[in-house]
Amino acid sequence: MKKQYPEGRSRGTENRFYFTADLFSVLRALPPGFCLLSVVFCFLVFSDVAYGIDTSVHGFLQGNYSMDTAARNPDGGNFKWAEERFQLKLDASKDPFHLMVKTDAFYKHNDEKGDVELREGYIDYTAGKWDARVGRQIITWGLGDLLFINDVFPKDYEAFFSGRPLEYLKKGIDAVKVGLYPEFASFELIVAPFFEPNRFPDPKRFRLFDPMPGVTDREKAKPATSLENTEAAVRAYRDVAGFDASVYFYRGFWRQPSMLPDNLLAPSRIALFYPELNVYGASLQGRALDGVISLEGGYYDSRQDRKGTDSLIPNSQTRFLAGYQRQLWEDFTAGLQYYGEYMHDYGAYKKNLPAGFPQEKKLHQLTTIRLTQFLINQTLKLSLFTFYSPSDRDYMLNPEMKYNFTDHIWAALGGNIFGGGKPWTQFGQLDKDDNVYLQTRYEF
What is the span of the domain harbouring residue 136? Predict the structure, then answer.
């Protein structure tokens, strides 16, 4: 059928009309994050010229691949991770405001699909005695090296076990952070209305212990967005006799889901939910014994199971950490940590533990060692990080070699090795998930 055009429109106008319509169709099909990034980019470019706002654009192109070395994935694949990624970071400043947007576009071969992810995007306001940050942001508290007590903010453990760059262990949260700086101490107040859980390894690629593997009907429910469920956290810190001292408080939820079967004896459906949690903690760090000593502790108040009688909700815990780091010779640093989780009301936990569920230890212990050596004018970095649990007798080893070819190009080759323990312990369950990974990046 011959196309019918509106009366009075010239052929050139007709072509422009249909070209514009096709363009809008393409734009509607793009991911929202890409559209947001485009809008912010145009704003920064034009505002730099029109309003004198200081702007900068940085980013990278990255390839990241992690291959199985012990066995194939549960889904039959050979790669824990395989993707190419492009990141664009935009900064704009004009006192007293600062805008930062960091967005990743990637194609993931494991799932054969691409997407756009807003890693961070926030606005800062700075005044004399206070400042504020609003938007998606990555927040880091506490002193532990890959051990977290008062850093209660969301993590991506799949990224860590898959051999991705360490920056991807931390996830952003949509929050308001306010800093207050009176003379006697400094304070950080955080309010997050939207709950963000931890991300754990995908069972299609990792072998994870499941006490109810036959129940496939599962539903995960995040806490509803409401005033009552809004997460809140406070940190107060100052110098005490040459040591950095901090105290912490958090009110929110456990970031690992708990299982609630419809019937413990013959379950057919499982609801995954996030129990309520308060955390009270403190930390101290300073120079001593020719190195740096770190001490940290926290009480995890499991608000929905304070008596420890509900075996499906974590008991309250006391967590503690002691660390020591020292440079032993030029460009060589060693770090040691001891970490413990002490379960309260352990007798009630054992009494109510369902049949078939593995029994956790009253005191779960972890030790870590980090060794780092720089060579060839600090362009070559050799590192080893190890976890070992004296209580569970399982371990994880992470050796890595990273080389900076130029100021803009680097590559890293490493591995994740798991073993020991039982099929349900933290690292023992990953015994057949050993992998070797390659990271390559061009930064601009």
Answer: 14-443
Are residues 392 and 405 in contact, defined by beta-carbon separation less than 8 angstroms?
Answer: no
Residue 369 CA to residue 300 CA, distance in Å, equals 25
- Asked if 93 and 72 count as a contact pair (C-beta separation under 8 A), the reply is no
Each residue's pLDDT expressed in tens, for the chain with a length of 444 residues: 434 433 344 444 434 333 333 433 433 444 444 455 555 555 555 555 556 789 999 999 999 999 999 999 999 999 999 999 999 999 999 999 999 999 999 999 999 999 999 999 999 999 989 999 999 999 999 999 999 999 999 999 999 999 999 999 999 999 999 999 999 999 999 999 999 999 999 999 999 999 999 999 999 999 999 999 999 999 999 999 999 999 999 999 999 999 999 988 889 999 999 999 999 999 999 999 999 999 999 999 999 999 999 989 999 999 999 999 999 999 999 999 999 999 999 999 999 998 878 999 999 999 999 999 999 999 999 999 999 999 999 999 999 999 999 999 999 999 999 999 999 999 999 999 999 999 999 999
**pTM for the structure as a whole:** 0.88
Q: What angle do CA 83, 114, 21 make, to 5 degrees?
A: 150
* Residue 320 placed within a domain: yes
Q: Say how far apart CA 66 and CA 78 lie, in whole Å.
A: 9
C-alpha closest to that of 364 among 386, 388, 394, 391: 391
Domain of 92, CATH number, reads 2.40.160.10
Q: Is residue 8 part of a domain?
A: no
On the 0-12 / 13-18 / 19+ scale of CB atoms within 10 A, 19 is exposed
CA dihedral 173, 369, 423, 364 (to 10 degrees): -80
Could you tell me if residue 32 is inside a domain? yes
Distances (CA, A) of 358 to 29, 180, 210, 259, 355: 48, 46, 10, 14, 8
Compute the distance between CA of residue 185 and CA of residue 198 in angstroms, rounded to an integer.
31
Our count of domains for the chain comes to: 1
CA gap 124, 95 in Å, rounded: 10
Cα–Cα dist 240/140, whole Å: 21
Could you give the CA distance from residue 340 to residue 390 in angstroms, rounded to a whole number?
Answer: 10
